[in-house]
Amino acid sequence: MPAPATFAYGSLAYAVPVNTSQTPAVDNPTPMQGIVIGLDIGGTKTHGVRFEDGVVVRDDSTGSSNVQNVPREVAAANIAELFSRIGGPGTDGRKVSRVYVGSGGIDTDDDARALAALIEPHVPGADVTVVHDSRLLLAAGRSSTGVAVIAGTGSAAWGKNDDGDEARAGGWGYLLGDEGSGYWLGREAVRHSLRRMNQGLPPDELTQALLTACGLDDPNKLIAMFHSAATGRRHWAQQARLVIEAADAGHAASRLLVEQAGQDLADLAAQAARQLRIRGPVVLGGGLGMNVPRLQDAFRAALAAHGITDVRVLDQEPVMGVLHLLAEES
CATH no. for residue 254? Predict the structure, then answer.
């Protein structure tokens, strides 16, 4: 049984069983020869792992290098910092031969090429593959087919069936969607607080927690702060923890929000599964999806109503899916 590790979402921490062994975390892997770097690029951080002959030898993170969330120069600087830590030749002189990247916001070939162009200078001669981060998630769930659902700063679902058909749902970004994500929960906390203000009701537990976290003394000030360029998507996604904490403390409106998030994520998964004519497995990942039991319960219940019962919560970091994807290629 793998040892438990702690994953944090905001100020919340949950013990989640993860594979901490120094061997490839796939069911039936083909041994990986050479030096491979796997990257998982989310809205908050860039997680990199260096594999040498299929064994994890370095594991590090920097800020986000997703150009939909940070300026290109910031993304480039974060990538450079990460490769300064986990790149470079091995002790035997071997160079990095492959970089496999999963990132949010990879919707077109142009998106993939633009990100690859930021990485290639750090690994001369290496083969760089860039895919949507949901592919990493499904692979990290030890499955080649099924539907992966990301619930982190944003949200998206992607799946593949035995015929190689692919389907996607959501992933439109915070202005058009991201239902059930950390940003969605943070925004809904603001909306809840403003509705109470309009109704002449005093701040409740959630509103007071939000005001304290934002350093404000009046719900009306949330409007300007929400629209300020000084806060942005990441700030409001981090406020999801307040909704989760309030829900766990018994706050009825917060419980409904977390349950709605689970249902919305399940709807994304069910939509992709219908297009693929499959009934699972569905793998739930992302900082929110992996760490919030109340959301997981709502997700499972909503999928059961769609006739999908093979639901798995990711038990290892998505970047470990790189080994599974490479094994599939060989």
Answer: 3.30.420.40
The predicted-structure confidence for 221-248, as pLDDT tens digits, reads as follows 999 999 998 898 889 999 999 999 999 9
Domain extent at residue 94? 4-141+315-329
* Full 3-state SS string of the chain: CCCEEEEEECCEEEEEECCCCCCCCCCCCCCCCCEEEEEEECCCEEEEEEEECCEEEEEEEEECCCCCCCCHHHHHHHHHHHHHHHCCCCCCCCCEEEEEEEECCCCCHHHHHHHHHHHHHHCCCCEEEEEEHHHHHHHHCCCCCEEEEEECCCEEEEEECCCCCEEEEECCCCCCCCCCCHHHHHHHHHHHHHHHHHCCCCCCHHHHHHHHHHCCCCCCHHHHHHHCCCCHHHHHHHCHHHHHHHHHCCCHHHHHHHHHHHHHHHHHHHHHHHHHCCCCCEEEEHHHHHHCHHHHHHHHHHHHHCCCCCEEECCCCHHHHHHHHHHHHC
> What's the predicted TM-score (pTM) here?
0.79
- Residues 88 and 191 both lie in one domain: no
